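Dear H.,

Thanks for agreeing to be a second pair of eyes. The structure we're designing against is below in token form, covering all 225 positions.
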């Protein structure tokens, strides 16, 4: 990111400019050892990365509690990315605690849908519940496959609604691009059993409900005027 020019910084309000260098440091620390391509080297430094993650989390949660979930218009692209990455890497209790802030950010249109999808899916994975958007992977029988998805046949339309790329295209980004979705469907029960999937309903906010609610609020405000 050293040669990266964040064009969104010019839009940062004066009241939030103090956060720019703080979040830049948070981003760098979040990627300190995660950016290492050597898996053995990463494992060697995992404890140090965990310590950095703990410090980052303290910083980010205080920012969210004070300002809400900030976006690129508030703190620039790097700053917004730092907030998202730290919260995605956070533990399950933290994710549950700050989930309402995520929903509030959706209502205020201050968060991209991809972040919502990854956050929800990662949270459900941690709770051993089904995911909604197919962003999380796992290994089964020595091969990469999708972590269990609820109502799998509806996944394409769900991803389209969130502006996510088609699932087959998404899977090509992983080390095994030839993930057999047919095998996934046929062995779903075994895959679910391998992760000790619970019967609990996945945590999920229906964006259509929020967007419809915002439309109704807008119409009501026009009527009042």
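And this is the sequence the design step returned. I haven't edited it by hand at all.
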């Amino acid at each position: 990111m050293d040669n990266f020019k964040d064009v969104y910084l010019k839009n940062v309000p004066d009241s939030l400019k103090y956060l720019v260098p703080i979040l830049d440091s948070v981003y760098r620390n979040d990627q300190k050892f995660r950016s290492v391509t050597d898996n053995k080297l990463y494992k060697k430094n995992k404890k140090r990365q965990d310590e950095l993650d703990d410090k980052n989390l303290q910083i980010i949660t205080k920012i969210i509690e004070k300002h809400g979930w900030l976006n690129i218009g508030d703190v620039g692209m790097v700053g917004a990315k730092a907030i998202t990455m730290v919260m995605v890497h956070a533990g399950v209790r933290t994710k549950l605690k700050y989930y309402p802030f995520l929903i509030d950010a959706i209502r205020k249109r201050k968060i991209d849908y991809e972040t919502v999808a990854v956050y929800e899916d990662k949270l459900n994975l941690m709770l051993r519940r089904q995911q909604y958007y197919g962003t999380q992977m796992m290994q089964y029988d020595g091969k990469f496959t999708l972590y269990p998805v609820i109502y799998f046949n509806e996944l394409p339309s769900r991803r389209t609604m969130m502006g996510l790329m088609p699932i087959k295209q998404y899977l090509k980004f992983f080390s095994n691009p030839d993930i057999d979705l047919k095998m996934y469907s046929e062995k779903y029960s075994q895959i679910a059993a391998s992760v000790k999937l619970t019967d609990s309903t996945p945590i999920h906010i229906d964006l259509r409900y929020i967007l419809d609610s915002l439309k109704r609020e807008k119409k009501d405000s026009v009527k009042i005027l």
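Two observations from my side: The chain has two domains: 7-111, 130-225. DSSP finds eleven helices and two strands in the chain.

Warmly,
E.
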